[in-house]
């Protein structure tokens, strides 16, 4: 018997079928791996993908699209490519690379993607921020005017750094570049203890690029022993990590530091070191078949560093008055500061601290060459008392080096030259400092004042370090406090300081 439903019945039947039809579906654009090797995957089929977009492979490994070509997409793999094979499916995520940020990150060690690697479990409450964002504009910025103390006499007196500045640390390997950076982090412990509000506290982000895992573990131990890990974040892309992670780590660390900058707080970020990031980027670019330029680096290697370092800034009062200070590190080969990457970063930053092998082996540590080191904007942020005290010490040191070289050839020196050599030797001795022992700024001022004003001139060189340890601990606390005030040293304080230093120097004069 044939079934001939009436029109009304047919309508009801269709309505019931349509009502119960499952409509919650998702459309994913997928591609297939054409070739893979050396951390680079060529993928066919992702026609709508954006540059810099994250993708996910069938094995769960993530990657980022860097080359958008007619036939395929060049994707760098964040991790091992051994689990990826030809023909595997690749799925778009629709998102740009982002990392966790916030105070929950303090005290943690994470990789370049923000995943904890310290074995202390998942991150608690945090927000996510894009790793690549535009640097603050001109109107959003303010001139650098607040000091960022490193605790090193040579830096705080002669090449001062301000909050929001970019100061390059440059030198050969094994000349104490990382030690300068770590001392700066350790010095913030006592600076933060004096902070009267949250806005005065300085948080630190240390980005280790291409370093040994043992070196990173040693750094974590140093910071935790000094209780400095509580205000620090460590981002590690070690030598055993793939090149894409070493390329990404500085941007990830910068995004974490920007959280503090954009919320009216202050942060310091250390990139150790950007030479290795440039090498990782060169490796990626050559594998992606991008045309090589000078020293086989790609044409946009300057932009690689400029877009990163421009994000360090002092914000205006209208935008929260926060700051992000950057201390990038660059390793030179045989002291050649005129190589491609060093000159690039020197031109981007607001000054440089140059460390030298010769000074290091002569026992002058930190091995900072005062003649080559400069801070272009830091003097505006320097404490008035330190500005008064250091006086013309940089000029005197330069004159001393010039005269010392000539004095080797002649024995008959007049009294003025002998006095210059004598003072110069003491001014060279005073900035010496043991590693991981940062000195508070008010104690630095007293020590430098003693050297500049001739209180150490009759003292044997081997007794100066002993004298340095004695004077800051025996000076009156009221005098130390008055030095910190913005008014600087008036005549009354100078007379009080002169009397104290004259008396304290007597036991050390032979």
UniProtKB/TrEMBL annotation:
It comes from the Eukaryota. Keywords: ATP synthesis, ATP-binding, CF(1), Hydrogen ion transport, Ion transport, Membrane, Mitochondrion, Mitochondrion inner membrane, Nucleotide-binding, Transport. Residues 151-375 form the ATPase F1/V1/A1 complex alpha/beta subunit nucleotide-binding domain. Residues 382-503 form the ATP synthase alpha subunit C-terminal domain. It is found in: Mitochondrion inner membrane. Transmembrane segments: none annotated. The keyword Flavoprotein does not apply. One of its GO terms (molecular function) is proton-transporting ATP synthase activity, rotational mechanism. Pfam families: ATP-synt_ab, ATP-synt_ab_C, ATP-synt_ab_N. GO terms for cellular component: mitochondrial inner membrane; proton-transporting ATP synthase complex. Residues 27-94 form the ATPase F1/V1/A1 complex alpha/beta subunit N-terminal domain. The keyword Membrane applies. F-type ATPases have 2 components, CF(1) - the catalytic core - and CF(0) - the membrane proton channel. CF(1) has five subunits: alpha(3), beta(3), gamma(1), delta(1), epsilon(1). CF(0) has three main subunits: a, b and c. Belongs to the ATPase alpha/beta chains family. Mitochondrial membrane ATP synthase (F(1)F(0) ATP synthase or Complex V) produces ATP from ADP in the presence of a proton gradient across the membrane which is generated by electron transport complexes of the respiratory chain. F-type ATPases consist of two structural domains, F(1) - containing the extramembraneous catalytic core, and F(0) - containing the membrane proton channel, linked together by a central stalk and a peripheral stalk. During catalysis, ATP synthesis in the catalytic domain of F(1) is coupled via a rotary mechanism of the central stalk subunits to proton translocation. Produces ATP from ADP in the presence of a proton gradient across the membrane. HAMAP family: ATP_synth_alpha_bact (MF_01346). This is ATP synthase subunit alpha. It comes from Fagopyrum esculentum (Common buckwheat). The gene is atp1.
């Amino acid at each position: 018997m044939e079934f001939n439903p009436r029109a009304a019945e047919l309508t009801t039947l269709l309505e019931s079928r349509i009502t119960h039809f499952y409509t919650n579906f998702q459309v994913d654009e997928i591609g297939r791996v054409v070739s893979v090797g050396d951390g680079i995957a060529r993928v066919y089929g992702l026609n709508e993908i954006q540059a810099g977009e994250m993708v996910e492979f069938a094995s769960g490994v993530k990657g980022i699209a860097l080359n958008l070509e007619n036939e395929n997409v060049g994707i760098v793999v964040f991790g091992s490519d051994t689990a990826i094979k030809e023909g595997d499916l690749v799925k778009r995520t629709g998102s740009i690379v982002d990392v966790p940020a916030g105070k929950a990150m303090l005290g943690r060690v994470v990789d370049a993607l923000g995943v904890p690697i310290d074995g202390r479990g998942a991150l608690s409450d945090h927000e996510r921020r894009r790793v690549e964002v535009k640097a603050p504009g001109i109107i959003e910025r303010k001139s650098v005017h607040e000091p960022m103390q490193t605790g090193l006499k040579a830096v705080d007196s002669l090449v001062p750094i301000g909050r929001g500045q970019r100061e390059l640390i440059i030198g050969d390997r094994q000349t104490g570049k990382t030690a300068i950076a770590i001392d700066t982090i350790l010095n913030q412990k006592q600076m933060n203890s004096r902070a009267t509000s949250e806005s005065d506290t300085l948080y630190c982000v240390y980005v280790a690029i291409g370093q040994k895992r043992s070196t990173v573990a040693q750094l974590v131990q140093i910071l935790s022993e000094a209780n400095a890990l509580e205000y620090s974040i460590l981002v590690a892309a070690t030598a055993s990590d793939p090149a894409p992670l070493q390329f990404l780590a500085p941007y990830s660390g910068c995004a974490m530091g920007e959280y503090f900058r954009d919320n009216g707080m202050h942060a310091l970020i250390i990139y150790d070191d950007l030479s290795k990031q440039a090498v990782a980027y060169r490796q990626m670019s050559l594998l992606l078949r991008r045309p090589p330029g000078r020293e086989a680096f790609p044409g946009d290697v300057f932009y690689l560093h400029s877009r990163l370092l421009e994000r360090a800034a002092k914000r205006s009062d209208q935008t929260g008055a926060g700051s992000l200070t950057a201390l990038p590190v660059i390793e030179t080969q045989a002291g050649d500061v005129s190589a491609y990457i060093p000159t690039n970063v020197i031109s981007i930053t607001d000054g440089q601290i140059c460390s030298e092998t010769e000074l290091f082996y002569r026992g002058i540590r930190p091995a900072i060459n005062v003649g080559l080191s400069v801070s272009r904007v830091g003097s505006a942020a320097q404490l008035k008392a330190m500005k008064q005290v250091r006086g013309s010490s940089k000029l005197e040191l330069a004159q001393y080096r010039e005269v010392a070289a000539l004095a080797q050839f002649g024995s008959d020196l007049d009294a003025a030259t002998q006095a210059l050599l004598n003072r110069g030797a003491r001014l060279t001795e005073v900035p010496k400092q043991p590693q991981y022992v940062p000195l508070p700024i008010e104690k630095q001022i007293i020590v430098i004042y003693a050297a500049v004003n001739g209180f150490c001139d009759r003292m044997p060189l081997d007794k100066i370090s002993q004298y340095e340890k004695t004077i800051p601990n025996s000076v009156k606390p009221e005098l130390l406090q008055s030095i910190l005030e913005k008014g600087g040293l008036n005549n009354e304080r100078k007379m009080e300081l002169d009397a104290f230093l004259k008396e304290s120097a007597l036991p050390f004069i032979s």
